[in-house]
Amino acid sequence: MPAQQIERITDQDRCKEIIYDTNRFSNDPLVVDKMLLFVAEIKGHIDEKYINEVINWGPILRKINITTNKQTIGEFMYNHLVEHNLPHDIIERKLTNLIDTNNEVMSFNNNYLQLLIDTCHLVIDEIVSVTTFSKHINFNSFEKEFMNLRQQAKDARNEGLGQFCKLMLNSAFGGDAFNSEKYSNTRLLSANKTYIQHMMGGFIHSTELNDDLYAVKVDKENCRCNSCLQVAYFVLDSAKF
After folding, report:
1. Where along the chain do its domains lie?
2. What is the mean pLDDT of residues 81-100?
3. Pairing state between β 185-189 and 122-135
């Protein structure tokens, strides 16, 4: 897992040296362990000679903006949206299987990027930066214990225990990715205080609970983040492959 950020590199030669480090092919765990974890911001595409190998399942999974018009999604899908009164002719952000980075700069962790290069024949057109991180193994014992326990539960067809282990693993890592800025505060206020809150800048919504009690949603005045966001990024990015 990534620990502290070491540096953000924009020098092209150094970026290429890190991305194409041949030590990743080594079978020596000591050599591999010395390699840095990194996140690379790049533009790229799958080599045209190998498109047929990936055409049924684009290996680059990223959210992109898609305009739901006839020219973009085709006549069949467009007519389907129109006939069923679904939103159309708007821009939506969708998780999409791609064979290139859609002419956008996209970020990849080292495992995902090197998989694309070595297995899917990704050609890097442009490198914007490479950000390196140190490593830590603080989650190893927790992860191995619950992964082994989950596998034992599956072998024993113990669905309850298996689901419990899955939830423990998901919540342990997924909690780091929550954007706390999207969550509002809810306060229980009297009618008079609710009226005052309506006139304040942070007011969002109120719901009457009884004659003199309201649940009032207000926006947060500040946000504090103690999560290991780099860990969440690596977990979510690695989950795509």
Report:
1. 2-136+232-238, 140-179, 184-218
2. 92
3. unpaired
